Amino acid sequence: MKFTYLKALGTSAVISLMAASSAWSAECIAPANPGGGWDFTCRQIGKILYDIGQVDAPVQVTNMAGAGGGLAFSTVVAERNEDPELIVAASSATTTRLAQKAFGDATADQVRFVGAIGADPGVIVVAADSPYQSLSDLVEAVKADPASVAFAGGSAAGGFDHMKPLQVLKAGGFDDITAVKYIGVDGGADAITQTVGGFTQAMTGDMSEIVGFIKSGEVRALAVLTEERVPGFEDIPTAKEQGYDVVAVNWRGLYVPGGISDGDFQKWADRLQAVADSAEWKQAMADNGLAPFTKVGGDFQSWIDGVIAQTEELSREIGVIQ
Amino acid sequence: MIRTDRVFGVVVILAALAYIASAYNLPQGSMFDKLGPKAFPIIVGAGALISAAFLVLRPDDEPDWPPVPTLLALAFATLVLVAYAYALKPMGFIVPTAIAAGVLSYQITPKPLSAVLVGIGLSVGLFVIFKYALGLSLFAFPRALMG
Amino acid sequence: MEIFSNLALGFSIALTPFTLMLAVIGCFLGTIIGALPGLGPSNGVAILIPITFSMGLDATAALVLLTSVYYGAMYGGRISSILLNIPGDEPAMMTTLDGYPMAKQGRAGDALVISGVASFVGAFLATIALAMVAPYLARIAYKFGPAEYFALYTLAFATLGGMASKNQAKAALASFIGLAIALVGLDNNSGFNRFTGGNLHLSDGIDFLVAIVGLFAVSEVFFFIETHGKDSAVGVKLGKVTIPWAEMWSTRWTMIRSSVVGFVAGVLPGAGASLGSFMTYMMEKGIAGDKGGFGTGVAKGVAAPEAGNNAAAGGALVPMLTLGVPGSGTTAVLLAVLMTLNITPGPTLFADRPEVVWGLIASLLIANVVLLLMNVPMVKVFVKILMVPPAVLLPAVTMISFVGIYSLSGSYFDLVLMIIFGVVGYAFRKMDIPTVPVILGILLGYQMENNLRHAMTLSGGEWTYLFSSPIAIGLWIAAVLGFVAPMFLRGLLKRPEIRDADELVD
């Protein structure tokens, strides 16, 4: 524990130093190493905020990897709870982990979720030569014999990719969800390989992970888990229109410290809205396979509360949490 | 005669037993994870145990360990490195690096003057390369002094 | 022809000034690292990884830099073999057999030129072969499910372990220690912390970069303190370098044969460049017969192992890129690079990240040309650098390691861990416990366990599932053979003694 303490001390020393040198620059914490989705969120949003004149100085991006985002979360709660110039990159993984108590004692209400401005839609795909032609074929097959269908996804068991088919199955009236086979492999591409190779019968993941394979014709998407069909992929039906009311998207957004004023919260919500409306962000989304998904301010917070409650319930049912 | 391999084998066996015990006490995973979090660590622990048993039963020839003074020098070098690790943040890059590099240099070739030069040269040279050519964020001196 | 459009894509990336510059820097550093006794490709790449990441290079750029270092070190290893009779790294050990006698006859320049050209031929042909073979091999990977991967990882341990030490039990023990270290930290499948003792730093697991730098770089310092750098290169002399055209032409078939054999040796998991140079030397010696004069300083004796080990270096990239299974110590280190960059090697790499794969292949081709220029006309530069005394070199290596790891994580904990790995690396090498399987274990342990667990999930807990496909059975048989065979072969094929015979680091 001594080391953690020292590290925390060191971090705060760096931060206070930076705060002294440039008092007005906002900071975005990416709770992961450079290169991942959270890092992308911070760098893109930070850059666009400055480019479109929403902030006066370039946004400082800090990478704080550790415990799957838990280190950044606990640092924000413990040390920077009232910092109005701090934003933290977040995604579905953040809320899934919070719902499953993966950040120790931390709970979602210790911070405020300020908005999401893009999302990677959830999908369920099968190999091109699969006998399952529609989502209901797949659901009925699981209902008939849960052992006959195994799902592969890019997140660990209990993670977001695991939740997607479970939500669909529940919506289809199948409740014995602990009997569903799921393997969490190293990323969506691996999950597709396993499915194309016939080791698993279906893959669950994000739209961006399957685009290349849909184009090459190796897989067939049975459903996309959004409200409406995704622009550019109009031939993929939604789960909703097939009778399974499930929306699961891997949103990209931000949270801010819990102790800031409502005014500051609204300020960030407005800034995010401005980013979402900018041409630069639309280009960045297109380049990175994200679909439009804008929810900011109070709307977003209440949507998040609902998502967390639902994830918690499902996790309890499959035994990921007690 | 006590052989290194035997001693090491016994140490590994004890460590492997502790490892297996620790794995055994893990809670069972969730339903769909048939194997759970214990099985593979137990397999690995058992593998280490068996390999270590071979070492105890059939040790190789004794390695040519250096004489005691050299071992002491190595221990000293290790201490210097640990001290260096802890000094790097509070004391900045230049001074600890010069001392650590100088000591190591002296230990490899015991020429005091050249060791001092190597220490200072490496410390300043590497700092310039890291900081200005590669753009790493290093502090030359303690932050307190730099304001 | 798909390969040409792919290569065109690759060259469009590799020929940007920045990438080109990285390739040149990598080649230069690599040749130095290879030439310096005590530093080989794996420690060279290991030291540079953390620095590369701290510089924030993107995936392609980082890979180009580090593989240029890798290829460069394979070239550079021959320089000290020829001039000092000390292999710059292990794969270059066979080059001493004829290279040093040539140097003693005053023909060091000829030996350096011929071996440099042989290195070029070997590496160039192997890179072309990599470009042609890898995409096809990548397709095979669709046949690999959890059971097959588990068997494949076992095979990697068995063959690498089998080759790595004189004592099979020690190689196995090293693998298990690596695996045990890999399992420390948060278990993603269950959400439990394992073996952390409540230490938060350990819940993210032990970073393999810390282990690699500790085992490969820091441990080296201890060796030099012990020996006071007796292997240093002070006093090397090299006269005028001219190109012996006729003699070089006479080795053309040797170079081509050796390239083919070396490449195949490199592709086989666990064999790597050392075996490549050994096999090619023995093969050419056999073909030439007693009249060939092998061992007395003949051109073919330097051409064969250099073409062989450089071709093997290219071949070793094939299993690493297509299956994610490294064939040697250095490719294990390169796999660590890929994993840190969030790139999953395997069949999907070729489909998903063509710019990474083909950019890499194109840069390797370019790097080869650069290396040929550096290693033939400019070889004298490196001969000068060879004279850097160890009292300067090793402290520099240590400080670079420290700054690299420190700038990655900013934590004392990782630095202390790195020192511990350094001490362990020293002790293990003294005791003839190979360190490469430890690294392999740390790298692959998590994947290995996951695949086993997935196999059990898919089969509903049925263990026979592990042996249920022809590929899996074939891999299991190969694994057993790979582990057992060296026990018998060792008597037949007595490998020549070299300074670091206890380690297969290439």
How large is the count of helical segments of chain C?
23
**Main β-sheet of chain C, in a few words?**
2 strands, antiparallel
Total E-strand runs of chain C: 2
End-to-end separation of chain B in angstroms reads 61 Å
Brief overview:
The complex is a heterotrimer of chains A (322), B (147) and C (506). Chain A has 2 domains: 2-14 and 24-119 and 249-318, Bordetella uptake gene, domain 1 (D-Maltodextrin-Binding Protein, domain 2); 121-242, Periplasmic binding protein-like II (D-Maltodextrin-Binding Protein, domain 2), CATH 3.40.190.
Describe the protein in words:
The complex is a heterotrimer of chains A (322), B (147) and C (506). Chain A has helices spanning 2-21, 37-51, 70-79, 92-99, 135-144, 160-171, 188-196, 207-215, 262-277, 279-287, 297-318; strands spanning 27-30, 60-63, 86-91, 111-127, 150-153, 181-184, 202-206, 219-224, 249-257, 291-296. Chain A is of the alpha/beta class. Chain B folds into 2 domains: 4-57; 68-146. Chain C has one domain (2-492). Helix content of chain C is 73%, strand content 1%. In chain C, a hairpin with a 4-residue loop joins strand 1 (185-187) and strand 2 (192-194). At the B-C interface, helix 1, helix 2, helix 3, helix 4 and helix 5 of B face helix 8, helix 10, helix 20, helix 21 and helix 22 of C.
Record the SSE blueprint:
The complex is a heterotrimer of chains A (322), B (147) and C (506).
Chain A: H1 2-21, E1 27-30, H2 37-51, E2 60-63, H3 70-79, E3 86-91, H4 92-99, E4 111-127, H5 135-144, E5 150-153, H6 160-171, E6 181-184, H7 188-196, E7 202-206, H8 207-215, E8 219-224, E9 249-257, H9 262-277, H10 279-287, E10 291-296, H11 297-318
Parallel strand pairs in A: 1-2, 1-3, 5-6, 5-7
Antiparallel strand pairs in A: 3-9, 4-7, 4-8, 4-9, 4-10
Chain B: H1 4-24, H2 39-57, H3 68-91, H4 94-108, H5 112-133, H6 143-146
Helix pairs in contact in B: 1-2, 3-4, 4-5
Chain C: H1 2-14, H2 17-35, H3 41-54, H4 59-84, H5 95-104, H6 108-140, H7 146-164, H8 168-182, E1 185-187, E2 192-194, H9 200-203, H10 208-227, H11 245-249, H12 252-267, H13 272-288, H14 299-315, H15 317-323, H16 329-340, H17 347-352, H18 354-375, H19 379-385, H20 390-409, H21 412-430, H22 436-459, H23 470-492
Helix pairs in contact in C: 1-18, 2-4, 2-18, 3-4, 3-10, 3-16, 3-20, 4-5, 4-6, 4-14, 4-16, 4-18, 5-6, 5-14, 6-12, 6-14, 6-15, 6-18, 7-8, 7-22, 7-23, 8-22, 10-20, 10-21, 12-13, 12-14, 13-14, 16-22, 20-21
